[in-house]
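User: I'm writing a tutorial on reading structure tokens. Could you give me a worked example: one chain, its sequence, then its tokens, then a sentence or two explaining what the tokens reveal?
Assistant: Sure. Here is the example chain.
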Amino acid sequence: MTRKFNTLEGFVRHLRERVEPNIARAVHRGVQDGADLIKTETKVQIGQYLDGPESGLPTAPLADRTIDDRIRKGFSPDEPGLRTGDMRDSYGTRVSGEALRVEASIGSDDIKAVVFEVGRMEQNNYQPPRPELAVAAFRNEEEVARGIGRMVVRAIEGRLLPNARATDSE
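And here are its predicted structure tokens:
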């Protein structure tokens, strides 16, 4: 829907009354939805081998001793990073408040998730990096940017923010 203004004053009033109060909310909403998308994609990837052009891929196969340990403890033999699901479920997001500049953190406070992402280089306890979070962020970068853009355009047009996520196609 194209909005037309008969006067410059009408356009300025629209900016002050409809756009300015909602633009920070729109940016926040877009960033929150983008962070949630990356978190969800990260959680979906855990337990799978990743392949692709991103740095750190393809991920290395599990070591034989790891597979043996998984079987001995009653877990499936070949799902990297996925045993009880606790590590996968520990991922979360933190998003700063509504503003024109919004920052998001996506990750886990579980040390196992950190080691899983960046690896461990100790000689007797080597674990290759499995960059789940980095890959999810890289693969969803454009979708997150588009989602933020959709929310900002809605605010500029003076429209309400939708109930659907910013990353869902309209």
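What the tokens reveal: Residues 8-45 form the longest helix (38 residues). DSSP finds five helices and two strands in the chain.
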